[in-house]
Amino acid sequence: MLEIRNLEKRYQGVRALQDVSLTLKRGEIIGLFGENGAGKTTLMKCILGLTSVQAGEITLDGEKISRKNITKLSFATCEHSFFPSLTPADHEVFYKDHFLSFRKKRFDALLDFFELPKNRALKTFSSGQKNQFEVILALCQGAEYILMDEPFAGNDIFNREDFYKVLAGILEPTETILLSTHLLEEIENFIGRAILLRKGKITGDITTMALMEEEKSLVDYVKEIYQYQPDRVSRSLSALAGDDRQS
Question: What pTM does this model have?
Answer without folding.
Answer: 0.87
